[in-house]
Amino acid sequence: MARSQDLAQAMRTALEENGDLIELQAQIEEEMLEALTRLQSGSNEHNSQYSFSTKRCKPAMPPEIILANNLIRQYLEEVGLKRTSSVLCTESGLPQSAVPDTVLRTAFPSLHSSGAKPLLCSMIQDILFKSDAKPI
C-alpha cells in the first residue's frame, strides 16, 4: 500500500513540475461540467449512463464576442488562472492555441499599452484615465 502511495505522490510531483497537473485537472473539470449539462438537459437518456463523449455543436459567435473571450483568456493566463482559462476555452469554443498579443493589439490601435500587463487591464486603465475616474 505504501508503495502505491509513494508512486502516486511521485507522479503528482512530476506532473506539477511540468505544469501538466493543472491542465489535467481542468480537463477533468470540463468533462464533468459537460456531463452534468448533458444529464440536466436529458440529452443522454438514450445512451449508456457512462457515455459522455459526444460533443454538442455550438452556434457561431459574433466576432466581438470572440474578441472579448480572447481578451479575457489573455488576462486569465497572464494572472496565472490557467484552469479557469481552460474552462473558458472549452465552454466558449475557443481553440486551444491562444491568439497572439500582437493580433489582439491590432484590434485596438488607439490603446496606449506598454505590453507589460494584459490588454484588458490596459483597456480599463485607459477608460478610467479618460473619464477621470479613480480605480476602485
TrEMBL record:
<protein>
    <submittedName>
        <fullName>Centrosomal protein 20-like isoform X1</fullName>
    </submittedName>
</protein>
<dbReference type="InterPro" id="IPR006594">
    <property type="entry name" value="LisH"/>
</dbReference>
